[in-house]
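INFO batch 0412 | record 1 of 1 | parsing
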Amino acid sequence: MCDVSILFPDSLPSDGRVVDRHNYVIKGYEDVPEILEWMSRQGYTMAVASRTDAEQDMRKALKLLDWDKYFTYKEIYPGSKTRHFARFHEQSGIPYSKMIFFDDEERNIYDLNRIGVLSLQVDRGLTLEVLQNGLEKFARERK
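INFO prediction complete | emitting tokens
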């Protein structure tokens, strides 16, 4: 899911879609719900980092999509991803070398790889294949 800067209603329409106040349907990448559920069942600790000025909208979108429950840590505010990940590290105690990150912005990938987070660019969103390749790369490189 990308950053959002739209207003959301307080509840879902009767058909369960997540829409903004203009009735534009908001949805994540197709594989994301399955990925979140699988990662959760496997016991992964997950975090979400969003560099957005629309903090409340992003938090509301996570709740309406029913994704909020998967994320132990949430850093949703303007600022660099390195700041977001510094907070993840402080809160969790997990070292950067044990973190993997997927993002569609090259600047974020560069910044986080520099501090030791395995960061992988996703051009067309997070898919099951991209996740599998990323986890395999992590296993190979972080033994």
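INFO post-check: The helical segments are 32-42, 55-64, 81-92, 106-115, 128-141.
INFO record closed
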